[in-house]
Design brief:
By secondary structure, the chain is mainly α. Helices cover 58% and strands 3% of the residues. The strands form two sheets. Strands 3-4-5 form a three-stranded antiparallel sheet. The N terminus is likely disordered.
């Protein structure tokens, strides 16, 4: 007997009733050649909120746990697994965090701005030799209250400042908060992957892949802003997933149930039910506001995720039985969604400027009261708002006009294949210096390079995700693709701008989710034969182990450890990496 799908079941019902079998639409018949199968379990509740599978006890039993202990461990695995992966990531990121004891790459900006925020509430001016003074013995802080022009919002710098407040103005202090957020992002991806893919194992795999990605690792140990943007984007994505499940559960609970306890679609519920208070969507709006308040590329995620959330509501109402789901979403969901995402994000962004607003020394703080600011058609607005708006327009002009050539700039076309990584730090100590024991001399480098095998495998995973989204209509694949597209595609609009590979760290977590989804397909779906799943598991395990080995191989280039010059050259796989 062949596999029964919703299509064949409907045809069987029609045959029993003496009616001609209803043929599926032509587009569905054409897509079958690509693997499309029309899905739809009888109980609509399972379509609205697919249940989490029962945790397996087999592994714990093999390890020697008794039945009761195995049951507890299986139930706790949803948290213990992600926490163990996060602990692993944290140990890697905090190990010797203060090395190299230098101001590396753009740490020349953000840690100093962060310290200034602690002192004045705005960015002051540093002496030209401030970097050398900060790492001198004794360290000196050469800061004056004269305002300086900065081109990024203050939120990320406030977070860096928290580490400096706790541990001092030193490399460990200014890297602490970023390392903490990098570790927490691994925990978030484990939990997000579990909820998205309905598998604790695949969720922990996604987190493990993120933990051993070189770009994420380097960015977690460097006081730059891009990883902070990534953290808030991932947090927003997780909040929206929770909101999606809870909202659909509310729809499912309102559906009528037949005599057999099976829920059926209902037009009144789908069209008219108000979805009520949605705190998780508001939390997502706050996180998206914090991402944009760190760097403006967070705005692309605000637009993409807000649209995605509305489309999720549309699909939920259609599944619940709405006759006119588009009209129902326009009437009942669009305005609340706009308020809980865009409006909340805008308010969060404004709040992030509180230090600048509460003081008088910030750049352009008094522009509205200057001769240039007293003219125009918007003078009826508060002075602080007009000054802030002017500041934003000047920053926008700077970002869109930044075309100064840089040694490590790269085109986004080359990012996924790691065409041009960025060197944050490089020294070539001689034998006997800085831990160098090689007669030929050594190299010390911190290279913002993703783990190559992970990224190259993720290119195939991205194709797989697009296939599942376009041909199988898998919303999970669409969500992952949205997370990648919002962080990647906008950079193609700025072909003349000076941009860098490390900007891609924002969508690295979604590449890891894509790779975890593809790995799940390699292992095989539930119900596959034991032989099929064994072969798949071996293949997937080899891929993951190779990725981990690749991370270990490039470890010296991620941490600035001294290695012989020949070993450094061996790791320069392409001329563009030098």
């Amino acid at each position: 007997m062949g596999r029964v799908t919703s299509d064949t079941a409907a045809d069987a019902d029609a045959h029993r009733a003496g009616e001609p079998a209803k043929q599926p639409p032509g587009w569905q018949r054409r897509l079958r050649r690509f693997g499309y199968v029309r899905r739809g379990p009888a109980d609509v509740r399972e379509r609205l909120v697919p249940p989490f599978p029962t945790p397996g006890k087999r592994v714990w039993a093999v390890l020697g746990a008794g039945p009761a202990a195995a049951d507890r461990l299986a139930r706790w695995s949803g948290w213990t697994g992600p926490l163990l992966v996060a602990l692993f990531a944290g140990i890697l990121r905090f190990w010797d965090l203060g090395s190299p004891r230098k101001v590396i790459f753009d740490e020349t900006y953000y840690p100093k701005d962060a310290w200034s925020l602690l002192q004045y509430g705005y960015e002051g001016t540093w002496a030209k030799n401030a970097n050398d003074a900060l790492i001198g013995h004794p360290a000196k802080i050469l800061l004056t209250p004269e305002h300086s022009y900065v081109v990024h919002p203050p939120m990320g710098k406030w977070l860096i400042a928290a580490g400096e407040w706790a541990f001092g103005m030193n490399p460990f202090g200014w890297r602490f908060s970023v390392a903490l957020l990098g570790t927490l992002s691994v925990l978030l991806i484990c939990r997000i992957g579990r909820r998205l893919l309905r598998s604790t194992a695949l969720g922990c795999l996604a987190g493990t892949l993120l933990a051993v990605d070189g770009l994420h690792f380097v960015m977690s140990r460097t006081a730059l802003l891009d990883l902070i943007v990534m953290f808030w984007v991932v947090a927003a994505f997780g909040c929206l997933l929770v909101d999606r499940d809870r909202t659909r559960a509310r729809l499912a609970a309102a559906l009528p149930v037949d005599g057999g306890g099976v829920a059926r679609p209902d037009a009144d519920v789908g069209d008219r039910l108000r979805l009520g208070w949605r705190p998780w969507r508001i939390a997502a709006g706050v996180c998206l506001g914090l991402s944009a308040a760190t760097k403006w590329n967070g705005l692309y995620y605000l637009a993409a995720f807000a649209l995605m959330a509305v489309l999720w509501d549309l699909a939920a109402r259609r599944t619940a039985g709405a006759r006119h789901p588009f009209r129902a979403v326009l009437r009942r969901d669009v305005l609340p969604a706009f308020g809980s995402t865009v409006v909340v994000a805008l308010a969060t962004y404004l709040a992030s400027w509180s230090g600048w607003l509460a003081t008088k020394g910030g750049y352009y703080r008094d522009w509205a009261t200057s001769p240039d600011g007293r003219t125009g058609s918007w003078t009826w607005l508060p002075d602080w708002l007009r000054s802030l708006w002017h500041y934003q327009t000047e920053v926008y002009s700077f970002h869109t006009g930044l075309t100064t050539p840089h040694t490590y700039q790269s085109n986004p076309w080359s990012w996924l294949v790691l065409g041009r990584p960025v060197s944050y730090f490089y020294e070539d100590p001689k034998a006997g210096q800085d831990g160098c024991t090689a007669a030929e001399g050594c190299a010390r480098e911190v290279l913002a390079l993703g783990t190559p095998l992970l990224w190259w495998a993720a290119c195939f995973a991205l194709l797989y995700v697009l296939y599942r989204w376009l041909f199988l209509r898998d919303w999970r694949a669409g969500a992952i693709a949205c997370g990648i597209a919002a962080g990647y595609l906008p950079w193609f609009l700025y072909q003349e701008r000076t941009i860098f590979l490390f900007y891609a760290v924002v969508f690295v977590p979604f590449l890891c989710l894509a790779l975890a989804m593809m790995t799940g397909a390699i292992i095989g779906p539930p119900g596959s034969s034991e032989r099929r799943r064994t072969i798949g598991a071996v293949g997937a395990g080899v891929l993951v182990l190779l990725i981990i080995w690749n991370f270990i191989y490039f470890w010296p280039l991620y941490t600035g450890e001294p290695i012989p010059k020949s070993a450094w050259h061996n790791r320069m796989w392409f001329d563009t990496w030098v």
